[in-house]
Amino acid sequence: MADTPPPDTSHAHSRPAGAAGNGLFAAKAFVAGDLVLRVEREVLSVIDSPALTTTASWKHHHKYECKVFKRLYPNVLPNTVRLLLRILLRRQNGVLPEYEWEAFMRLQHHLDDFKRQRDSDSQTTWENIQLMARAAKEYSGSKDELGRIEGMMGRVLINALTLVTPTFTPLGLSLSPTTSLLNHSCLPNTCITFSGPTLSLRALRPIAKDAELSISYIDITNPAATRQADLLSRYFFTCACVCCTASPPLTLNRIDPPLSLAASLSPITLSALEGRARELMQASLDPGPDLSARLQPLSEAMSLFTPHAAYYPPYRQPFAALRAELVLVLLATSQYVPALIHTLITYFHIDPFLFPEAVHPVRVVHKLVLLKLVLEVAHRGADGDKAVTELAATWALNWGVVAFGLSRELDGSIAGSHGAEGRFAQQVRTEVSRFMVDSKAGLFRELGSGGRSVVDEWGRLRKVADQGLAWWEARGR
C-alpha cells in the first residue's frame, strides 16, 4: 500500500477561497469539454444493496464488511453509515492510504450546524448523527472515541456525492477528498461524471487560468428560492453566486418568470399548486404491478400547470421533472409515439434552457435516449405500427435522416461530456452501429434521397414538438 499520493495528473490546485473555505482553482485555461481532473479509482464509496453483487465493489471492498452484513441480515445499514463503516474498516485493515485518511479528516463536518437542525419529526439531525456514529463504531469495532466518529459522520453527510452511472442512474454514494474541495455555484463551470469507479471533472464552458472551479451541490434547475432553501438546509450556507445575487435572481442566467404572469395565483396558491404536483409525482413512483396506473397522477400533475403556461414554461420546475417522469412511464408501457413527442419537447424546449452547454452530460444523455427512441420507432413503423406511420406521414418525417443527425451530434459531443473512451462512449457507439446495420439492411432506404437534409428534418421535428406542446397547453384552457 502506498503511503504517498500518486503523481498529480490533474490541472487544478487548492487554495483559500474566501468565506467558502478552501476551493479548487484552474492551473491552466480550459475550453468546454476539457478534462480538468480524474480520480482513477473510487476513493471511498458504497453501492446500493440491489446493485452490490453486480459491481466490482463487491469483489474489491465488500470482503471487509461481509461479517457485519451477516450479523445484520436481512437488515441493511443506510448508505451513509456503510460509507463511514467502509472508511473505518479499510483503515483498520491497512488498505486506506494515510494521505487519503488525512485528506478525509481535513474536510468540514458542520457538527455545530447539525446540532441546531431538526427534521420533519422534530428529531434533531444531531441525534440521528449520534445514532449513525454509534452504529459505525459498534459494527467496525473502532477504538476511536465516539465524538471523533461523530465528526467523521458529519464529514460524510456534507461531502458525499451521489454515485451514478454514466446516464445518471443513482448507484450509491462516493466521497473523494479532492473533489470535496469544489465549491458550489448555481452556474457551475464544471460537471462530474462517473464511468465505473472513475470520477471525471470536465469544463462546461471556457475557464480562465486561476479561476475557481465550481460544481452544483443541488438541482440548479429549480428557482432561486428553492435553491437557497436546499443549500441552507443541507449545507448550511446562503449562496452568493452571480445567479442568486442578481436582481431579480436568475435560474441558469434566465430571469425567473415574474408573478405577474400568473395573475390569478397568489404566492400561497402557487406553493400549494407546486406541492400538490410533487405529491402526485411521488405517488406515480409507487412500483405497483400496473405501470400504466402511474400515468394518471403524472398527467394530473402536469395539467395543474398548463393553465398558467406564461408563468410555467416547459423548462420551469417542477413541470420539466414531471415530463421526464412521464417519458419514463410511456417507454415502460411501450407507448413510443407519445414518448417520442415528449422527448422532442425536451430536446427543443427544455434542455437548451436547463442545460445550455452543448457538452453538458445530461443534455448529451438525453440525445442518446432520443436516438434509441427514433431507432425503435423506425423499426415499429417498418412493422406497420399505425401510430408511427401516421406520425411520419403527417409530418413527412425521414427516420433515417433523423437518426443520422442525432448520431452526428452525439459523435461531436461525447468526448467533451463523458470522454471519448469509457462506458457511455461505448453505449453511443453501440447505438450508432445499430443504425448503420439497419441502414445496410434497408430499413432506411430513403436516407440521402430526395435532397433531404438534417436542417430540413430538424425543422419538421421542431414542428412536432411545438404541436405537442400546444396540445398540452390547450388541455388546461
Strand order of the largest sheet: 3-9-8
Global geometry: globular
Q: Average pLDDT value? A: 86
Helical coverage, percent range: 40-55%
Strand residue content: 5-15%
Oligomer: single chain
Q: Helix and strand string, N-terminal first? A: EEEEHHHHHHHEEEEEEHHEEHHHHHHHHH
Tell how many strands the DSSP assignment holds: 12
Number of helices: 18
Outline the low-pLDDT stretches: none
Question: Radius of gyration, Cα only, in angstroms?
Answer: 24 Å
Distance between the termini: 67 Å
Largest sheet: 3 strands, antiparallel
Structural class label: mainly alpha
Describe it.
Helix 10 packs antiparallel against helix 11. The strands form 5 sheets. This protein has a 3-stranded antiparallel sheet, with no helix packed on it. 50% of the residues lie in helices and 10% in strands. By secondary structure, the chain is mainly alpha-helical. It contains 18 helices and 12 strands. The model has no long low-confidence stretch (mean pLDDT 86). Strand 11 and strand 12 form a beta hairpin.
